[in-house]
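Input record, target 12 of the design panel.
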């Protein structure tokens, strides 16, 4: 953390956080059959945990909620392709995301899984006090805005396909 009041996660610290979370999951005796990442931030977490926990069965769910810094839709929405519940049936699922901020996204994905899986648990790098979901595995709790290394810089390509000036 720096003096600007934000959490600053570096790629090096992300590696430490991922290993710490994997160790906590292993120490807990939880052996997920698959990791379901919430795109986009959860992709990084799921990939790191997949290697650390030796889980090769990784799935992705795309959820749109945040539209800007502190700006959200009224409710999170799953975007296609939505995971096929038959792929999740009777599995122990670990839902991975970068942050449980409001918890709305995690709640949507958790509820989607709950009816179809043997067990569902959640893992995040950061959990905020106002989160609707209390994750089983949390690296750090904070009420600050978080600068993640993968999202702190502007995109090099704009959505219309033009390359940004350096």
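The sequence produced for target 12 reads:
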């Amino acid at each position: 953390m720096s003096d600007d009041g934000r959490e600053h996660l570096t790629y090096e610290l992300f590696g430490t956080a991922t290993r710490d979370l994997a160790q906590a999951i292993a120490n807990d005796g939880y052996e997920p059959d698959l990791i379901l990442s919430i795109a986009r931030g959860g992709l990084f977490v799921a990939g790191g945990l997949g290697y650390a926990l030796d889980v090769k069965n990784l799935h992705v769910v795309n959820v749109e909620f945040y539209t800007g810094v502190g700006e959200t839709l009224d409710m999170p929405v799953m975007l296609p392709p939505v995971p096929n519940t038959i792929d999740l049936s009777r599995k122990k699922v670990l839902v991975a995301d970068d942050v449980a901020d409001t918890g709305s996204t995690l709640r949507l994905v958790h509820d989607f899984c709950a009816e179809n899986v043997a067990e569902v648990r959640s893992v995040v790098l950061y959990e905020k006090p106002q989160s609707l979901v209390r994750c089983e595995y949390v690296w750090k709790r904070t009420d600050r805005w978080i600068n993640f290394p993968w999202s702190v810089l502007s995109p090099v390509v704009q959505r219309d396909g033009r390359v940004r000036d350096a």
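The chain has one domain: 7-147.
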